[in-house]
C-alpha cells in the first residue's frame, strides 16, 4: 500500500476528493481544508493500493494538481485497516505486477544525475575491481560490482526511451559517458602509482587470467548475461523488490571491465584494454535493451500505452 498526499487549491479539493472516492483502490480518505501554507490550499490524504496508483496519479495530474499544488507518494510497510484491505482487494491487478510510472521516472531521474557522489562511487568501484584483478581476489571483484552505481543511469535510459522522456535519456547518457572515462582514468592513475611503488607489474594480469578472463573476453555469454541482468534489474525496480538488485550488480561485467581497462592501459596491454572496453560496451547495451523491453511488455500488459509524462 501507498500513502498519497495532495496539496491543491481549495476550489480544486472537491474534484480531488471525487477522484479518490470513486476509485476502488483508495481508502482512509482525509481532507484538511486550509492546512497547506505554501502554496496555500487544502491537503487531501489517502491510502491507496499500489496497483491503483498510476490511474489515480494520472487523474489528479489531469486536474492540474501537480502544477497548482503537489502530489507525494510514500511506501507503507504496515497497514492495519479493513478499508485498506478492501481497497487492495478491489483494485484491478496485482500489487507485484503494478508499475507506478511517475514514481519510476522520478526514481531513475534522481539516480541518473552525474555528480560528485556518482563519480566517487564509480571510481571506488573501478579501483576495487583493479585491486581484485591485481591480487586475484574474487571477493574484492564481487565487492566492486556491488559498489558500482551504474545501473541507475542504465535504467534511466531505458525508462526515458519507453516513456519518451528524452531529457532523462540525455541526463543518464551524460552520466555514463562522462563517469566511466573519468573513473577509468582515475583507476589508471592508481595503477600507475602502484607500479611506481613496485606493488605489481605486467605479470599481475597474466597470473589472474584463469579467474578473470570473463572480464575482457567478449562472447555470446557476455550479451546473454547482460540481457538477463537488465531484465531482472528492471523487474526489481518496477515491482518494488529491491533485494534482487544486488544479484543484478554481481551479474554484470561493467565495473570489472572498466577497472581492468585502467590497469591494462598502464601496463601497456592494449589488446586487453580494447577487449575490456568492448566488454563494457556490450554489457551497457545489453542491459539497456533488456530493461527497455521489460518496460514495453509491462506497458502492453497493462493494456495501454500510458499517459505522456511531463519533462522534469
Automatic annotation (TrEMBL):
InterPro entries: DUF389. The keyword Transmembrane helix applies. The chain crosses the membrane at residues 116-136, 142-162, 174-200, 220-237, 244-270, 276-297. The keyword Disulfide bond does not apply. Signal peptide: none annotated. It comes from the Bacteria. Keywords: Membrane, Transmembrane, Transmembrane helix. This is DUF389 domain-containing protein. It comes from Actinokineospora guangxiensis. The lineage of its organism: Bacteria, Bacillati, Actinomycetota, Actinomycetes, Pseudonocardiales.
Amino acid at each position: 500500500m501507498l500513502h498519497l498526499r495532495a496539496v491543491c487549491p481549495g476550489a480544486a479539493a472537491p474534484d480531488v476528493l471525487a477522484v479518490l472516492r470513486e476509485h476502488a483502490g483508495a481508502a482512509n480518505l482525509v481532507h484538511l481544508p486550509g492546512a497547506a501554507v505554501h502554496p496555500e490550499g487544502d491537503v487531501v490524504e489517502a491510502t491507496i493500493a499500489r496497483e491503483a496508483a498510476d490511474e489515480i496519479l494520472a487523474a489528479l495530474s489531469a486536474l492540474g494538481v501537480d502544477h497548482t499544488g503537489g502530489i507525494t507518494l510514500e511506501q507503507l510497510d504496515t497497514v492495519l485497516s479493513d478499508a485498506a484491505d478492501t481497497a487492495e482487494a478491489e483494485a484491478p491487478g496485482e500489487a507485484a505486477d503494478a508499475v507506478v510510472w511517475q514514481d519510476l521516472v522520478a526514481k531513475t531521474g534522481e539516480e541518473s544525475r552525474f555528480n560528485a557522489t556518482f563519480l566517487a562511487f564509480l571510481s571506488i568501484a573501478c579501483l576495487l575491481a583493479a585491486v581484485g584483478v591485481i591480487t586475484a581476489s574474487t571477493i574484492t571483484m564481487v565487492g566492486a560490482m556491488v559498489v558500482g552505481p551504474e545501473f541507475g543511469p542504465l535504467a534511466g535510459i531505458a525508462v526515458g526511451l519507453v516513456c519518451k522522456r528524452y531529457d532523462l535519456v540525455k541526463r543518464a547518457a551524460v552520466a555514463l559517458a562522462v563517469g566511466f572515462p573519468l573513473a577509468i582514468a582515475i583507476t589508471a592513475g592508481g595503477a600507475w602509482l602502484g607500479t611506481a611503488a613496485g606493488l605489481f607489474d605486467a605479470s599481475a594480469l597474466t597470473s589472474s587470467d584463469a579467474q578473470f578472463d570473463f572480464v575482457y573476453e567478449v562472447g555470446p555469454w557476455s550479451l546473454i548475461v547482460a540481457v538477463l541482468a537488465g531484465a531482472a534489474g528492471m523487474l526489481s525496480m518496477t515491482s518494488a523488490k529491491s533485494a534482487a538488485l544486488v544479484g543484478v550488480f554481481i551479474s554484470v561485467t561493467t565495473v570489472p571491465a572498466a577497472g581492468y581497462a585502467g590497469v591494462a592501459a598502464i601496463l601497456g596491454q592494449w589488446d586487453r584494454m580494447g577487449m575490456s572496453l568492448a566488454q563494457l560496451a556490450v554489457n551497457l547495451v545489453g542491459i539497456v535493451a533488456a530493461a527497455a523491453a521489460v518496460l514495453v511488455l509491462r506497458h502492453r500488459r497493462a493494456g495501454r500505452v500510458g499517459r505522456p509524462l511531463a519533462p522534469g
